[in-house]
Amino acid sequence: MQKRYNPIRLKLSKMIVGEHDAPNRLAVPCTLEKAARVGLMFAVSSDADLADANYVYSQLSTFKAGVSVLGYVLNGKELLAYQQQSHFNLVTDADFDFLYRPKNAMVADFAATPFDILIDINSAQFYPTRLLLHRTAAKFRIGRFADNQPFDLMLSIDGTKDTKYYFEQIQFYLKKFN
User: Fold this and answer.
1) Which pLDDT band, with edges at 50, 70 and 90, does 53 fall under?
2) Residue spans per domain, the chain
3) Does domain 36-176 have CATH number 3.10.20?
4) Mean pLDDT of the chain
5) Residue 140 half-sphere exposure, CB side, CA atoms within 13 Å?
6) What is the mean pLDDT of residues 63-82?
């Protein structure tokens, strides 16, 4: 998945908003068994991405935690088709302002929710969602390893491994914090 953003908007956003966490943010790890609220973020560019999100959501739903989900649709023209296939909250670039800050109340509420754990499947490579991940009130953020990412726990997963393996690794490492 690759998406191009207006370079002027990106530069302005980085200058004015910046990619940094809230001041005095402290990462607090916990296991999925102990989490009261779990957030899940993902990007959608194909039906397979929705299937991956459905899988992780179904796994998270087996725990006692309340699960909130936010999906970022790369191509706004496909939003309606994905909404018909999904019961998740889906957003596009239209839900962010000129500087890629949330302008939709649903996105702002998701960012303000103090999740015990926030799991990102594949959306951190896109600027609006990476900025959202930086700004979230989540106590502990998990995502795939890459440079300059806003995660407290980053997993380096081979590209040939599927989402099931990724989620198993998340569970394995979270149990180590117990």
Assistant:
1) very high
2) 36-176
3) no
4) 90
5) 18
6) 91
